[in-house]
């Protein structure tokens, strides 16, 4: 892509360039901002100044800009995607942008910042390593900047870079910048997980976006792009205990039985002892199979197929973990922060599909403890959650789930709720822990239905017959109820 | 252990998407367009299901106007990989004389691509169509989901798409509705070429520069495989060293002048290129935002 100019020109040979390209890592970041704070302009500027925009794209937006009241190139038009938005001049959804520099590849999840778009900010932050928060130097810390920082903290992003924009409109005044920094630091002190960084910029003029500005001689730190290129990408998932959601059981022939999936956390090596949840059966990793050959070891993020020394009953949705490691929590009743994403509000007692990793179950919204005012961060009583609301709730799944707290593991600690009628994704969930009093063992997971006048009893909703043990329990139960003829 | 470098990270994420489709959808199909992105898709699918086979067929919407070299490559490569290939063509429209010059680009695309695709999917009873579209291709694609919901008429509603969080994809649909799935969503054109290079993935020879017969019309190099491509007075066919940057129907795909006859040379050329990929496609010049209009009608 166009960004690679600098690399090609500086690399001594093209082979060196290719080699360099193959070693770049990837940084995902999220931006949020509203119509006037210049976010689209900033992204457009970042792409343009790092030479990630093609000539014909510039021509097409220069043509379009002529009809609007903006300077030579309207950078915001480079990123505003859909036609409806272009007409209204607003961004309404999560848009993805890609650019690269000689040091790194970047994916931007670009979202609107208004309160009613909290769900989009959460969506964008869910896959991000870093949040870029924009502050208008003239206006200081507004609710939407706070909201964005709060969501970044909630979603577990370790870095927040605060770009204090429109410095040109406050005469590049150092005191304005420092007052905003102080103010924001006080607010962020509540989120100990977050490491903030502050940069004075002007997206429109290009100050400190890609090149250092002579207008801010008092600012000695990196430009925004330099910061993005250098910030260490989190490898928290690598240090966490081994977690693996079984995605598919692979049985190409009778000799091979493997479990395909992406490693959610930690690493796994040949010979490792593993435990399967929820069955708690144990085995040894006998193979790590990939198209490119067998591996001795694989780590978080890799998509592999594991084989085990024992023939266990393992299906999609099971979780493999390292034996003896910190075991995941097992509970069907658990507490979670819910972000409500749908026009139809959350309904207590209503059943939803829950998708947790590769596992799907029915789940009921058992209670809502409170909701969070995203502007004041205060807890408020709530009986329901409207779209864009963030609340703390208790969920009852039909069967126990093996999970970690979201703070400990982004993959095994997150879920979505799906409305069974509309099929819409209605909520995003960040798990805290098992609800109190959930330690009681659940019943034998037997389901029954009446079909053609007969009662059909099966195991685990799977259509498979019940086990001997379950059959015995049912017989006992029915005999207590004095139902004798029940076959 | 460091994080995966970007190509391996993109690869693993695409494999995860393929496996989710296979696990949760009833009748998936891979929309195979023969281009470089399709070649990458096939390699990722092989990786996703290894040591098993790719558990769904390939569907090629053949407009009848694809380059001969594309069809040769398609038949040879899919046979070599042992894949089941379904080819669907809107024969009725072809019989009625559909071609981009007689019908205009938009109407021709509507009949030979959009209608053919929707018919092909319906005939096969497919509920999930996996395609090679990337978000970096075009502005309206930047907001496309990985699992993109289509209504009963196969149409896309940009205001009614499901939020996608983490790697949790919602595949729930009602009867008659369908999903389009894009495992290459987060890949850029340069990523695709680097991956082809790193993995030594076979691609159609049209991507490599060599002297080819072309109608030279201003800046545009127009291939002349079809007899109906009209010539302006005095226009001659010339041999021009050129290559295709993206592949489509021969009458609507402009070539670019190039000396790049290897993958590294293509990457080098791309790195210095100042014009976007779709710019050489005649079809996107109809009107501003034309891709978005096509998508709402059901185009891929």
Q: In angstroms, what separates the terminal alpha carbons of chain A?
A: 70 Å
Oligomer: heterodimer
CATH level-four homologous superfamily name of the largest domain in chain A: P-loop containing nucleotide triphosphate hydrolases
Structurally, the number of domains of chain A stands at 4
Low-confidence stretches of chain A: 1-11, 439-444, 483-487
Q: What proportion of the residues of chain B is helical, as a percent range?
A: 25-40%
- Global mean pLDDT of chain A: 83
Main beta sheet strand tally, sense and closure of chain A: 6 strands, mixed
CATH architectural group of the largest domain in chain A:
3-Layer(aba) Sandwich
Outline the biggest β-sheet of chain B.
6 strands, mixed
CATH class of the largest domain in chain A: Alpha Beta
- N-to-C order of helices and strands of chain B: HEHEHEHHHEEEHEEEEHH
Task: Give the tags.
heterodimer, A: 487 residues, alpha+beta, Rossmann fold, Elongation Factor Tu (Ef-tu), domain 3, 4 domains, 6-stranded mixed beta sheet, 6-stranded antiparallel barrel, 24 strands, 33% strand, disordered N terminus, disordered C terminus, B: 300 residues, alpha/beta, 4-stranded antiparallel beta sheet, 9 helices, 15% strand, globular
Plain-language structure description:
The complex is a heterodimer of chains A (487) and B (300). Chain A is an alpha+beta fold and 487 residues long. Chain A has four domains: 2-234, Rossmann fold; 237-322, Translation factors (Elongation Factor Tu (Ef-tu), domain 3, Beta Barrel), CATH 2.40.30; 329-434, Translation factors (Elongation Factor Tu (Ef-tu), domain 3); 446-480, no CATH class. Chain A has helices at 5-10, 14-21, 39-49, 55-65, 83-88, 118-126, 143-154, 174-188, 224-230, 236-239, 468-480, and strands spanning 25-33, 95-100, 104-112, 130-136, 159-165, 195-200, 243-245, 248-250, 258-265, 267-269, 273-277, 282-289, 297-299, 303-308, 319-322, 329-340, 351-356, 359-372, 379-380, 390-403, 414-418, 425-434, 446-451, 454-459. In chain A, helix 7 (143-154) links the parallel strand 4 (130-136) and strand 5 (159-165). Chain A is globular, with a radius of gyration of 26 Å. Chain B folds into two domains: 6-195 and 289-297, Rossmann fold, CATH 3.40.50.620; 204-284, no CATH class. In chain B, a hairpin with a 2-residue loop joins strand 7 and strand 8 (220-223). Helix content of chain B is 35%, strand content 15%. Classes of the chains: A alpha+beta (487), B alpha/beta (300). At the A-B interface, helix 1, helix 2, helix 4, helix 5 and strand 2 of A face helix 1, helix 2, helix 7 and helix 8 of B.
